[in-house]
Amino acid sequence: MHRTFLDLLEHNAEHAREFDSRFDEVQDAQHPDAVTVCCSDSRVLQDHVWENDRPGHLFTVSNIGNRVVQRTEQGEVVSGDVLYPLEHTGTELAVVLGHTGCGAVTATYDALTDGISEPPGIEYSIDLLKSRLADGVEALPDDVDRAGAVNRLVEYNVDRQVEALLEDDSVPDGVDVVGAVYDFQDVYGGKRGEVHVVNVGGETSVEALRGAHPEAEDRIRRLWEY
């Protein structure tokens, strides 16, 4: 058996010892306080970002490009893994969390500007992003470098995913939707590992967001107000 997996089992044994009594209240049902839609990336420790170690608190969804949509015979719809907690567990908050230096956004940028070839499974994910990022690529400032373009598109992608949640009739009324970016590259000028709010309920103006949410004013930042 691979040594890495044996190491994982050892860590799981410690986890089981620590968490043995923490499942009592959630063994039979879950009512998470939020669903978080994160990008699949080993650098983003998806529960630890929020210092969460409480079973049942967060319903964490992870995929390439923190997408909230999937393609069906009826067209593109909010993905079942995102919709489930909103529809069936009483969850009233959805958080779309992108991250700086996102590989999925980078690949989509390359696909839209130069063209790339990927295996079908990756191509499916990129295609779902391409349709949402194409206008953003066209609107990028002429003087922005590659890294700057990608990180602006990270915000743009978060905005488009928030928009998809707000516009889909299958999302229950009253669900709050927040878009944010996790920064581990010193892009936003805070501490590495901070989450910065870029969108609340479709509002993307930093001035308007800070005025409406003064309790989080210092965490509301954007690189790009297009």
From TrEMBL:
Signal peptide location: none
Named cofactor requirement(s): Zn(2+)
UniProtKB keywords? Lyase, Metal-binding, Zinc
> Which molecular function terms from Gene Ontology are attached?
carbonate dehydratase activity; metal ion binding
**EC number, UniProt record:** 4.2.1.1
Under Gene3D superfamilies, the record lists: Carbonic anhydrase
Q: Which domain of life is it from?
A: Archaea
Q: Which reaction does it catalyse?
A: hydrogencarbonate + H(+) = CO2 + H2O
Binding-site positions, Zn(2+): C39, H99, C102
Please name the top-level EC class of this enzyme: lyase
Give the note describing cofactor binding and stoichiometry: Binds 1 zinc ion per subunit.
Q: Which family does it belong to?
A: Belongs to the beta-class carbonic anhydrase family.
Name of the protein this chain belongs to: carbonic anhydrase
